[in-house]
User: Which sequence fits this backbone?
């Protein structure tokens, strides 16, 4: 068991290199179960790098710090074991998986997660019932379940498919990397409803977004601004409003300095 009072997610002094560049120098974030932390930051500030590094993408080398999910040392695990421990990352640019059928991909993922929790796998019939119900909630036609993952999907359809996976897998921690970009108004509403429902069930969120209206709509517990390889500012929704008014810290410094 995790210590009483321990946070669900604890990231401490995380340093990450991507290619030649030390993108994250020292990032520290704590998130409780059911909390939503909005991560904002300029293009290239390292938001996606943070998500990839936590998920275990091999091209993002963690060179310092710690990341714990409950009592699990995330950084010690292979990517698939981080997912089995309850981490979910929705991609800013969801890739195609040609030849891999969407419903089989999702059922395999789900059963792998259930197995890690010593729970029974879902059979194809039950899975399809659940997947169709969620797909209907987020306005994704059920025919998309039979198509290869993301192949030929429009931008918004890809994001809806990420949302479908999120709702299906019910992770402990969901990192949503600009899941709102490219979504129409109904899609945006589906994101807010999905986040609301899941946080009530204890899922914690790192919500990466450039949109003030999105951040306002999810009512985050905190807003954190990534800049210069660290969390430069943390605050309430007021911080997101201030960023919308005056820009990011670095941009402001260069204007003022
Ligand atoms: N493999 C790599 N090689 C070199 N540089 C990289 C690599 N991966 C990422 N970077 C650089 O790291 C920086 C952070 O990129 P990242 O994608 O994390 O930014 P971001 O905050 O998500 O930006 P955006 O808002 O545009 O999505 C960028 O300058 C990017 O060019
Ligand atoms: Mg990004």
Assistant:
């Amino acid at each position: 068991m995790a210590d009483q009072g321990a946070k669900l997610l604890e990231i401490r002094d995380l340093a990450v290199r991507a290619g030649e560049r030390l993108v994250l120098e020292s990032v520290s974030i704590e998130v409780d179960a059911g909390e939503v932390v909005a991560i904002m930051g300029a293009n290239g500030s390292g938001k996606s790098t943070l998500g990839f590094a936590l998920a275990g993408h091999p091209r993002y080398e963690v060179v310092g710090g710690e990341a714990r999910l409950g009592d699990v040392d995330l950084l010690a695990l292979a990517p698939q074991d981080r997912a089995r421990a309850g981490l979910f990352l929705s991609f800013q640019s969801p890739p195609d998986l040609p030849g891999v059928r969407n419903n089989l991909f999702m059922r395999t993922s789900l059963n792998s997660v259930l197995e890690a929790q010593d729970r029974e796998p879902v059979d194809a019939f039950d899975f399809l019932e659940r997947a169709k119900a969620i797909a209907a909630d987020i306005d994704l036609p059920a025919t998309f379940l039979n198509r290869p993952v993301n192949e030929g999907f429009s931008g918004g359809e890809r994001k809806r498919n990420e949302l479908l996976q999120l709702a299906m897998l019910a992770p402990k921690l969901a990192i949503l990397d600009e899941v709102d970009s490219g979504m129409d108004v109904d899609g945006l509403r589906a994101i807010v409803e999905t986040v609301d429902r899941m946080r009530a069930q204890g899922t914690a969120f790192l919500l990466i977004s450039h949109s003030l209206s999105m951040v306002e709509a999810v009512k985050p517990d905190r807003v954190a601004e990534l800049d210069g390889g660290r969390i430069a500012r943390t605050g309430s929704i007021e911080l997101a409003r201030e960023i919308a008014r005056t820009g990011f810290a670095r941009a402001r410094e260069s204007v003022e300095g």
Summary: Residues 21 and 81 are 27 Å apart (CA to CA). The mean pLDDT is 94. Residues 185-200 form the longest helix (16 residues).
